[in-house]
Amino acid sequence: MTNCWDFKQVEPMAVYSSNNKKVIYLTFDDGPCEDVTNRILDILKENDIKATFFLIGNQIDGLEDTVKRIFTDGHSIGLHTYTHKFKRIYSNRNTFINEMIQSSDKINEVVGISPDIIRFPGGSRGHLSESFLDKLHGYNFKIYDWNMETVDGLNPKASPYKLYRQATKDSEELHTIILLLHCDYVHKNTCKALPEIIKYYKNKGYE
């Protein structure tokens, strides 16, 4: 289920709480998208919840208002490379880092911040070594994977119920959850599943 190669070395969003509170972090990859991302923002606002959006830099042109809304609504923004093209971004370390910098610069143009939290497309497993981690830390990048996911990344047309079940199964075993979801144009069923996912975790006492 998890794509985190080593929770001791990648920073899972302050994932270990010292006071044993149950916490879930909602994270959305592959945005921005005008319709789906804004619908997700509506749902989060209705439920008074903040999330983290890992954005693809070359999708921002024309969607500056959506990025501004993510920021002004109080959500966190992370980097998900500039092109999301696997062959390119994983061709060598410098290309990967430059794509993150390019994406950060693009976001800075829009909202005036330069995010330093990153997520590897497909997860860091198989791409991250201790030496690469050190190099990324040299750029002040912090890497966040996930320990629970829906299937919306691989199967965006999965039913809202299936997405809900994937997002909640085995949750009793986890005190802190980083949930992977997506917010590109194909993820309309993610929007439909999200309110029930939020309701489930609220009822279970998660913050």
Q: What does this entry look like structurally?
A:
Strand 4, helix 5 (about 130-140) and strand 5 form a beta-alpha-beta unit. The protein has helices spanning about 35-45, 65-70, 85-90, 95-110, 130-140, 160-170, 190-205; strands at about 25-30, 50-55, 75-80, 115-120, 140-145, 150, 175-180. The chain starts with about 20 loop residues before the first strand and ends with a helix. Mean pLDDT is about 90; it is low at about 1-10 and about 10-15. It has 7 helices and 7 strands; from the N terminus they run βαβαβααβαββαβα. It has a 5-stranded parallel β-sheet with strand order 3-2-1-7-6. A two-stranded parallel ribbon has the order 4-5. Helix 1 runs parallel beside helix 7 and helix 6 packs parallel to helix 7 (about 190-205). The chain has about 210 residues and is an alpha/beta fold. The protein is globular, with a radius of gyration of 16 Å. Helix content is about 40%, strand content about 15%.
